[in-house]
Each structure stands twice: as structure tokens, then as C-alpha cells.
Amino acid sequence: MKARNLFLCLAIFLSASTLNAQNSADALVRTFTNQLKSHKNMELVFNYQFSFDGKDFNKTQSGKAWLQGDAYRVEMSEQQNISDGKTIWTYFPEEEEVMLSNASEGTDNTPLKLLTSLDENYAATVTKMDNDGLCTVELANPNGQYKRISLKINTKTTEIKSADIYLEDGSLMVVNIEEVKFDQKLDDKFFTFDEKAHPRVDIIDMR
């Protein structure tokens, strides 16, 4: 799976701390997307697992991500994805290698475009609500890059707790949100790859 696609999957699971419980799944998702639009940026801490072709999940890994407009940065154990909205740097620390590509390539090419179009492009259905206020919302889009997304939202604390993402290659990604912050002070350079700080890195330009 392409590194860009991996990050876009991760981006879906951002918690909206002021989400209000709604009887309508469509209204719930619409509130979520509108809330995202109201913030300058967001930061999240998460852990995730993959299951490939229905096989057992791999080990749990952790990461952090930041979104600001068309720019984003995600740091995981094996790679970092960084974009200023024009260029994407995919950095592999162990290999000392970074790949450059155009941010305009691909479907849903920036995380916020994907996130803020959930209410427009995905059909939402509430499939379960337990006594503790944990609501399961199923999002479906037969023509989308991600056919099915299952979100678990705690309607009492107004937080998205986890998400199951069913990818186009048949694999499943499960993400659990640990912490979310909004409107951090982030310099523009934060969303670029610092080549001077990595003088030995091998740069592969795929643009």
C-alpha cells in the first residue's frame, strides 16, 4: 500500500472533541466535518494494527500526526510522511531514504479534503448504541478509495474512540485514538523535510 494512502487512512480517525450526540448518523458526521473546518490545525496520538487478507493482526504500533490546511505530518515507527500541500516526503529512517512525490497525485490527495467530504461522499448509518453511550457509525462509499469505515463514538464524552478501515486491497486497519489537540503553534517548516538535518539520506525524486 502506498505511503500516502496509509496516512490518509490514519487521518480519518481524528477525534472531534466538541461533537454532540445526534439521532441522525448523517447529522453526526456533518457536525464532525464542520467541527474540523473550524480549527486551524489538529494534532493526534494514536495506535494502530493491520490485518492483511484476513490474516491475524500484526503488532500494535504507535504514532503521532498533525494536520494544517493542505499540509500534514505523520510520524510512525517505520516511516514519516510529510507534506506542505505541494510536495510529499516519505522518509524511511532505517534505510536513510526519502521519496519525493507531488501532493496533487492520487485520490483524496490531502487529509482535510478527505475528512471534510465524509458527509458528502459517504452514506452514514448508526448500527449500534450501547447503554454506556458508545455509538457505532458505519460509513460506506462504493466508489470511494475506502469502501467502508466503522467509527466508534462515545456520545457522553463526545470523542471518537476507534475506527476500523476496510481498504481497497482487502486489508483492515484498526486505529485507536489516545489524545487529540487543536490549534497548536506550528511553523510552516514543520511540514517540510529538513535535508540539512539528514545529510546522509538518499533522495529519490519521483515527481
Question: Would you write up a description of this structure?
Answer:
This protein has 207 residues and is mainly beta. Helix content is 15%, strand content 42%. The chain contains four helices and twelve strands. The protein has helices at 3-11, 25-37, 111-115, 118-121; strands at residues 42-51, 61-68, 71-76, 80-83, 87-92, 97-102, 123-129, 134-140, 146-154, 159-167, 172-182, 202-205. Strands 7-8-9-10-11-1-2-3-4-5-6-12 form a twelve-stranded mixed β-sheet. Strand 3 (71-76) and strand 4 form a beta hairpin. The longest helix has 13 residues, at 25-37. It is globular, with a radius of gyration of 17 Å. It starts with a helix and ends with a strand. The model is unreliable at 12-23 (pLDDT under 50).
Radius of gyration: 17 Å
The overall pLDDT average reads: 76
Largest sheet: 12 strands, mixed
What topology, given as strand order, has the largest sheet?
7-8-9-10-11-1-2-3-4-5-6-12
Q: Show unreliable segments.
A: 12-23
The number of helical segments is 4
Cα separation of the termini: 18 Å
Element order: H for helix, E for strand: HHEEEEEEHHEEEEEE
Fraction of residues in H or I helices: 10-25%
Structural class: mainly beta
Number of strands: 12
